[in-house]
Design a protein that fits this description.
MFS_Trehalose_Transporter; transport; 467 residues; membrane; transmembrane helix
Length: 467
């Protein structure tokens, strides 16, 4: 639903900037329209996280259905450029709520053994929405296309209203009986006592501190988790994927004519995104988050360099590269594959896993602010850089950001696959204690007894959590 809101303009850009456009505009207008969705996101993400902790995950997610419906009604009833900007802001707010709250909700209702899979399918459904846009947009009239988009929020609302609230949230509000009923519904069995006790203990421990933005950086453990999430977020949204899915038709047009039309190539790219993300979701719990994220980032660097080199030859030289179009198409396909075995599905997983219960809402909100800023830069500068230097320069910039990010992940990213949310928090504590021990070894030449005792206590807690 929100993926459609994010990308619905992409197949219409050539039509909207043409002579017979229903809403006359130029390429600068379209670049602002594409990027303006982030204005709605950046101001809503933090309030969405706070409201999710206060009123619940489910009510906020349900609210996005009517928000999207209002935006489509405005599109159907007006033909005004200023109104389209208002529409984009409303749609951006809906995207912000979903991207802030849905990862929390999915992580909190999932069993640890399949949490990575379910979180990964969040990204799969995002790309299904994008493919829906690619398939319908080029071949329908403006009005019929809008009708097709407007149906989806109605379907979402009718289905999601039957889902239960997160048991984590209900325990945060001290509604133990409701939380147990929610868990029984989610697991389809009444034998949930052990899991319920583990969740309750984890929430009680997390809730000993009041959840505020200061708690995100209150301790070394919290700061480490917060910084890693922001790094992964920047890498995901600066590696080029937002611009590629939003400007794919123009990118393929720059490669000159081929066997397939630009719209058909865009549809093929959408299929690749859906298929690779679907299968990648099953890999995150077996292969692990860390190797997939590092491979994904460094692979994206390689394919961005190849696409940039091809477009440079096509745009800036007199070399005829038409017979080598398969190189660019293969590189774009390769980028879609490697980007979506890690960065695509795992950003939301990392975001939901690294923040404890009492800061998960505000932490997710701030992370989505980071995502909005990075995405706005990615979307708005794509057109500007393309006009100043050529489309090729965008891909080299994407490769630069990816290289810096990939090298950083090699040093800072821990593994969390197969671990409960409580275990992950205890292991962050373990890592901080180990750093203290190393520091004392270096300074004093020996390990201080009190540090050893602290480490033993933390490890005993971790083992108890595993049991």
């Amino acid at each position: 639903m929100t993926a459609i809101c994010f990308t619905w303009l992409e197949p219409l850009m050539a039509r909207l900037t043409g002579k017979h456009s229903e809403i006359p505009m130029n390429t600068d207008h379209t670049s602002w329209l594409v990027a303006s969705v982030e204005f709605g996101e950046v101001f809503i993400t933090v309030p969405a996280g706070l409201l999710a902790d206060r009123y619940g995950r489910k009510p906020l997610l349900l609210m996005t259905g009517p928000m999207c419906m209002v935006s489509w009604i405005l599109i159907l009833t007006t033909r005004s450029l200023p109104v389209l900007f208002v529409v984009r802001i409303i749609q951006g707010a809906a995207v912000a709520i979903v991207y802030t709250v849905a990862p929390m909700y999915i992580a909190e209702i999932s069993e640890p053994r399949i949490r990575g899979e379910l979180s990964g399918h969040f990204q799969t459904m995002w790309y299904v929405g994008i493919l829906y846009v690619y398939v319908t947009g080029p071949y329908l009239s403006y009005q019929n296309y809008t009708y097709c988009c407007a149906v989806i929020p109605i379907v979402f609302f009718a289905l999601f209203v039957m889902m239960p609230e997160s048991p984590y949230y209900l325990l945060m509000r001290e509604r133990s009986k409701d939380a147990e009923r929610s868990l029984v519904w989610l697991r389809a069995t009444k034998q949930v006592d052990d899991e319920f006790d583990a969740i309750r203990n984890s929430v009680q421990e997390d809730m000993k501190r009041k959840g505020s933005w200061r708690d995100l950086i209150a301790t070394k453990k919290d700061r480490k988790a917060f910084y890693i999430v922001q790094i992964v977020c920047f890498i995901k949204y600066l590696n080029g994927m937002p611009a590629i899915v939003s400007y794919s038709t123009r990118t393929f047009a720059a490669s000159r004519a081929g066997i397939l039309t630009h719209s058909q190539l865009t549809i093929a790219m959408g299929v690749i995104l859906c298929v690779t993300t679907f299968f990648a979701a099953f890999m995150s719990d077996s292969v692990g988050r860390r190797p997939l994220l590092i491979i994904s980032t460094m692979g994206s660097v390689l394919f961005n360099l190849i696409v940039g080199a091809y477009l440079y030859l096509a745009e800036e030289t007199h070399i005829d590269v038409t017979s080598y179009q398969w190189i660019m198409y293969s590189a774009v396909a390769g980028f879609c594959i490697v980007s979506n075995i890690g960065l695509g599905p795992l950003m939301q997983t990392i975001q939901a896993e690294f923040f404890p219960s009492h800061t998960r809402g505000i932490g997710s909100g701030i992370t989505e602010v980071t995502a909005s800023v990075a995405t706005f830069f990615n979307l708005k500068q794509y057109q500007t850089i393309a006009d100043l230097f050529g489309i090729y320069m965008n891909f080299w910039i994407f490769a630069f950001f990816g290289l810096i990010g990939g090298l950083t992940l090699c040093f800072v990213l821990p593994e969390t696959a197969g671990k409960s949310l409580g275990q992950i928090q205890h292991e962050f504590e373990d890592s901080v204690v180990v750093e203290k021990i190393g520091s004392n070894d270096t300074m004093n030449g020996s390990i201080q007894p009190e540090v050893v005792v602290t480490k033993q206590i933390v490890n005993s807690k971790s083992e108890a959590t595993k049991l």
